[in-house]
Design goal:
The chain is mostly helical and 344 residues long. It is built from 14 helices and no strands.
Length: 344
């Protein structure tokens, strides 16, 4: 195995990881929530649903912030999405797998990767290793046999939608999402503000770290050619930044549980640390749905390697007007909803 020195970007990737870790830390310390992007995306698309979680404004603002970073980066010339040579079928299939897999395993590269490892969860460690291994096998063995179709996604999208609609669809929906978030949380404007701030930081981190370049992601997963280890620095920087805030929050949660004290969380002061049990490390041996989670991790890893996108980068690229993301994101959502319906 040789290192792809030409595309190796350790400093940018490390800085991107620090921003991602900072985003998840602010989100945790202000709201008591875990910044799992697949879950945020699933919740944010439920604006018109019957059952809305009380933190929907927070999650919608976070998701919109990620998307609008992509749009603003393109407008300012700081970022330009790379044209995808994936077929529409590959993008749709991979998106379905990512959506279904993240729903089954209850997390993705952010929820289990950054936040799971930062909260020292053995369950998350097992699932991260599983979808990383699956992604590497898919990138090395399956992707090379896929047909190369230059500008395939662009051709499909341009045939279905005018360019002005395709380029502005996701940013327009994101702006509407922000309007919804700020309107419905007018009594506590800190909720959507922090959501937006965290989403913006997270989106900048994804672009700076290289996660918004599907080719770079595949270059990291594929060990059979010249290997680009840059994304190790993204994860390392993110976990190194977030591990202390998670540790302090877990310690406060443990100390407060027996006293039944109210949390010092700013956005949701009525919650108690004793109610935030999902922040505690999750044991793999005591996990009751091992098979379902492992199936989810395999589906997620396969879809991630096929498309080069997980939910967060897909949202950034959607905001940037990427045709590939316009095919990928609806497929991710469909995969989540299908699994949600089957296992509800």
């Amino acid at each position: 195995m040789k290192i792809d020195w030409d595309n190796f970007t350790p400093l940018n990737s490390l800085l991107g990881g620090v921003l991602i870790g900072g985003s998840t830390s602010i989100y945790l310390l202000t709201s008591g929530r875990i910044a799992g992007i697949s879950g945020l995306f699933d919740a944010a698309t439920n604006v018109l649903g019957d059952k809305k979680p009380k933190d929907l404004s927070l999650k919608t603002a976070f998701t919109a912030g990620i998307s609008l970073v992509g749009a603003l980066a393109v407008l300012t010339g700081m970022f330009q999405p790379v044209s995808s040579n994936e077929s529409a079928f590959t993008l749709l299939l991979g998106g379905l797998m990512v959506g279904a897999g993240s729903k089954l395993q209850h997390g993705c590269t952010s929820g289990h990767g950054v936040c799971g490892l930062s909260r020292k969860s053995p369950k998350s460690l097992v699932l991260v290793c599983s979808f990383m291994a699956t992604g590497a096998l898919t990138a090395g063995l399956v992707r090379p046999s896929l047909p190369v179709v230059p500008a395939a996604s662009e051709a499909v999208v341009s045939a279905a939608l005018p360019a002005s609609v395709a380029n502005n669809a996701i940013p327009s929906l994101s702006i509407l999402g922000l309007v919804y978030a700020y309107y419905h949380s007018a009594s506590n404007i800190a909720v959507p503000f922090v959501g937006t701030l965290c989403g913006v930081l997270f989106g900048i981190g994804l672009i700076l770290g290289g996660m918004a370049d599907p080719g770079k992601v595949v270059g990291f997963l594929d060990f059979t050619n010249e290997w680009d280890p840059s994304l190790m620095f993204v994860m390392g920087g993110a976990v190194a930044t977030a591990i202390l805030p998670f540790h302090l929050t877990q310690r406060k949660m443990t100390q407060s549980a027996s006293k039944n004290e109210k949390s010092k969380v700013f956005l949701f002061p009525d919650e108690k640390f004793s109610q935030l049990k999902y922040l505690a490390p999750k044991s793999w041996s005591e996990h009751k749905e091992k098979t379902k989670s492992l199936v989810g991790s395999v589906l997620f890893g396969t879809g991630w390697a096929l498309t080069g996108m997980c939910p967060g980068p897909g949202i950034v690229l959607g905001g940037a007007g990427s045709a590939a993301a316009l095919l990928y994101l609806p497929a991710v959502l469909a995969g989540q909803k299908i699994i949600g319906t089957l296992f509800s």
